[in-house]
UniProtKB/TrEMBL annotation, chain A:
NCBIfam families: urea_degr_2 (TIGR03425). Residues 15-186 form the DUF1989 domain. The keyword Translocase does not apply. It comes from hydrothermal vent metagenome. This is Urea carboxylase-related aminomethyltransferase. InterPro entries: DUF1989, UAAP1.
């Protein structure tokens, strides 16, 4: 994470092993930097509005609002309600997938040797679908709340006929992506393999993440000015945040 | 892939015309065949499918395109559910390519795509919101309204990862036909969008036909 978008230093850092899952509620103005520790990582990620869990990350709106199939620096990640959960302010990879979904247990078993918890304890082969379901239940969410997720660090390209190709090890050791949250957000994520990963064995790829305070969004902000759609998205956020945050104490005294 | 159907309209057990801006919600039994017919051409039919016996199992765009290894839908495509199980198969298609990346229009996304002042223009998601509240017997709610198919819509991906909303490749009389592999609910919004070429700026009716 560079200092361009950060106030001070990261206030929390952690590493999730490969095949793990976690969740956290983050405030508007939070910077989240994820780092692929060994290369070839995948981070499945979904966003929800913590105050209205029916509002969630919407991949189709994110793609069509910005006329893009890939996600990278400058792109905003939209909810189904026309608002921006997060902006991608920094990115070493250049291409992140959001249309391939998750592995489930049956798919994993066809691809790799399934290692149960009983057999392998912490070396078990967790899948992205079950990982999301575990985190979902903590907030009262269920499979109906699933949506097309982000697969950060993973690249899937297409040819003229629409045939898809997973790019092996698109992300290198040390590659990072930084998200700046533009509204309060419930972040649910896992480090299970991408469903099109064709490695010989279940890939265990840890991901480091750090959290810091973001500098305020400036008028010349890259993500905000990437396209007129994002300018309008930021206006929707401004109205939402005005309506949902306490009034400044100075105006409350008038 | 262009593939014509052998079924004749006379033999259909059910026919219903859906005007632009309306929804269509109907149960299809396993083994029945559903045709969506573009009556006047270049009309987007935004469509969701559910397992009628447990609607929390539903059409999944991600599972469908990933399992067939191609982002476009056409004859031969098996529509997969969120459990990565087959729900329906496209058995005939005279259009050749259908989109499932672009999602449906909603009033809120219209504010971002076009103008904050267009937030009250009719949108597919409003049709679906009305459908679920007028048909409580199916137990559908907002969480069931998700990533859909845009039959007759053309959304090509460019070599450098862009997404373009191109002129439709559909025409009057073109159709797509699906065989139900489970009992399914079909929920269509006949798209009212006036702000882009997905309906040639002139939304028109579609017809639904079902054969036993």
């Amino acid at each position: 994470m560079s200092n361009v978008y950060m106030v001070g230093k990261p206030i929390y850092e952690d590493t999730l092993g490969g095949g793990c899952h976690w969740s956290m509620r983050v405030k508007k103005g939070t910077l989240l930097t994820l780092t692929d520790v060994k290369g070839g990582a995948n981070v499945g990620m979904l966003f929800y509005n913590p105050y209205d869990l029916l509002e969630k990350y919407n991949a189709p709106d994110t793609l069509k609002c910005q006329h893009t199939f890939k996600l990278t620096r400058g792109h905003c990640l939209y909810s189904d309600m026309g608002r921006i959960f997060a902006s991608i302010v920094e990115d070493d990879c250049g291409w992140h997938d959001t249309v391939c979904g998750n592995l489930n247990k049956n798919m994993l078993e066809k691809k790799w040797t399934l290692k149960t918890y009983q057999e392998a304890h912490n070396g078990w082969t967790q899948n992205g679908n079950d990982a999301f379901l575990v985190e979902f239940a903590k907030y009262g969410l269920n499979r109906k709340d699933m949506a097309a997720n982000l697969n950060l660090f993973s690249q899937v390209v297409t040819d003229d006929e629409g045939n898809m190709r997973y790019v092996e090890n698109a992300s290198k050791a040390g590659d990072t992506i930084t998200l700046r949250f533009e509204m309060d957000t419930l972040v649910i994520f896992h480090t299970c393999p991408h469903p099109l990963n064709s490695a010989d064995e279940y890939p265990v790829r840890p991901v480091h993440y750090s959290i810091a305070q973001a500098k305020p969004v400036t008028d010349d902000d890259e993500c905000k000015n990437k396209c007129s759609e994002n300018q309008r998205g930021f206006k929707n956020n401004a109205l939402y945040n005005f309506l949902n945050e306490p009034f400044p104490s100075s105006s409350a005294s008038n | 892939m262009i593939k014509h159907s052998q079924l004749t309209e006379d033999a259909a057990s059910f026919r219903h015309v859906v005007p632009a801006g309306d929804y269509f919600l109907h149960r299809i039994e396993a083994g029945q065949t559903l045709r969506i017919l573009d009556l006047e051409g270049n009309q987007a039919a935004d469509t969701l499918f559910y397992n009628a016996d447990d609607p929390s199992e539903r059409y999944s765009a991600m599972d469908t395109i990933r399992e067939q290894g191609n982002v476009y839908l056409t004859a031969g495509t098996v529509l997969m559910s969120n459990e990565n199980e087959p729900l329906l198969e496209i058995v005939a298609d005279t259009c050749g390519r259908h989109d499932t990346l672009g999602g449906a229009c909603a009033t809120e996304s219209n504010t971002v795509r076009y103008s904050l002042e267009k937030k009250c223009m009719h949108a597919c998601r409003d049709s679906w919101m009305l459908a679920i509240n007028q048909h409580e017997e199916y137990g559908l709610d907002k969480a069931d309204i998700t990533h859909n198919i845009n039959f007759f819509m053309n959304v090509p991906i460019t070599a450098n990862g862009g997404l373009t909303f191109a002129d439709g490749i559909s025409d009057a009389g073109k159709y797509v036909e699906l065989k139900a592999l489970k009992n399914v609910l079909v929920l269509v919004s006949n798209c009212p969008q006036l702000n882009n070429p997905c309906n040639a700026y002139n939304p028109t009716p579609i017809e639904i036909l079902v054969w036993n």
